[in-house]
TrEMBL record:
GO terms for molecular function: ATP binding; hydrolase activity. Gene3D superfamilies: Cyclophilin-like (2.40.100.10). Pfam families: CT_A_B (PF02626). Residues 23-303 form the Carboxyltransferase domain. SUPFAM superfamilies: Cyclophilin-like (SSF50891). This is Biotin-dependent carboxyltransferase family protein. SMART domains: AHS2. It comes from Undibacterium rugosum. Keywords: ATP-binding, Hydrolase, Nucleotide-binding.
Length: 323
């Protein structure tokens, strides 16, 4: 069992999301940085799709009531395990043991936006529509469909039998995010098209799990007409009348009516998820072949991670590198 002494703000139980229900208006939900949660789970020998904690803000203080193995990935927090007589810092991307009665303390984030805590056995909440992910808008999944609160208790699955401390490579955030042109790209004038790709963008503080609002040069349409409602999904870049784009994220609605200037490729959604408010980045155009190649490269990275954990590569400290 995990006891949340301090739960932080907007932190929640997440997994890889809820697939196959968008036609019913049900959001995907799940981790904003799905790959980071997958990494954390595999470090403690959970299935990659197991539920963990998505941590956006500290301080977070969790008391463990059984011996456990834990892993933190994604955004970097100041993290330590505290016992009755000592405090031990823990590194991002490493599997670490924690004893019954000890406390995990997180402060931050120092860099990045969302961290993921995996516990051996996974977070054991009731699945809804095949997923344990928290959907805030629909109030389903996770712990009663809401953010975690001080005093909450979370159950975990069967404990992992143990092993050495191991770590995996953690990606370094870079400010280029690849996109495909959207269905309404040609409805924007030449100046707007150039500004979209050449301009610098920032994530607004008025962003949430449904969508990241961007700040930059306002984008103007050359074709002024209403659009019929259409399907949308995480990664779609919409442009409302203000001209400031909104990138739909994990909790995005199933339909929308704003013009879609672009779509962030799946392999780069983690970069957007980890962009702190005020961080500057740019969009880079790619095509379907480029998106498919990027996805294949990420799958190869996952394969190499599995090999490093369960093959000959155990015990080497991971170095940060570009995503």
């Amino acid at each position: 069992m995990l006891e949340l002494i301090r739960a932080g703000l907007h932190n929640s139980v997440q997994d890889q999301g809820r697939e196959g229900f968008r036609h019913l208006g049900v959001a995907q939900a799940g981790a904003l940085d799905a790959a980071a949660l997958w990494q954390a789970n595999r470090l403690v020998q959970n299935a990659g799709g197991a539920a963990g904690l998505e941590i956006l803000t500290g301080p977070v203080v969790i008391r463990f009531h059984r011996d456990s193995w834990i892993a933190l990935t994604g955004a970097v927090f100041q993290a330590s395990i505290e016992g009755s007589h000592h405090s031990q810092p823990i590194a991002n991307g490493w599997r670490s043991p924690i004893r019954a009665g000890q406390v995990l303390r997180l402060q931050g984030p120092v860099s990045g936006r969302c961290a993921y805590l995996a516990v051996d056995g996974g977070i054991d909440v009731a699945p809804v529509m095949g997923s344990r992910a928290t959907d805030f808008a629909a109030k389903l999944g996770g712990l009663d469909g809401r953010a975690l609160r001080n005093g909450d208790w979370l159950s975990t699955g069967p404990a992992y039998t143990g092993g050495p401390r191991v770590g995996v490579l953690q990606r370094c955030w870079t400010p280029e995010i690849r996109v495909l042109r959207g269905p309404e790209f040609e409805q924007f004038d030449a100046a707007a098209q150039e500004a979209f790709f050449r301009g610098a963008w920032q994530v607004s503080p008025q962003s949430n799990r449904m969508g990241f609002r961007l700040q930059g040069t306002p984008l103007q349409r050359s074709v002024q007409r209403d659009l019929p409602s259409h399907a949308v999904f995480p990664g779609v870049v919409q442009v409302p009348p203000s001209g400031q784009p909104i990138v739909l994220m994990a909790d995005a609605q199933a339909t929308g009516g704003y013009p879609r200037i672009a779509t962030v490729i799946a392999a780069d959604m983690w970069k957007l998820a980890q962009a702190q408010s005020g961080a500057r980045f740019c969009f880079v155009q790619t095509d379907r072949d480029g998106a498919a190649l990027a996805r294949k490269q990420w799958e190869q990275e996952l394969y190499r991670m599995e090999w490093s954990l369960y093959g000959k590569g155990l015990g080497h400290r991971p170095e940060c590198r570009s995503g």
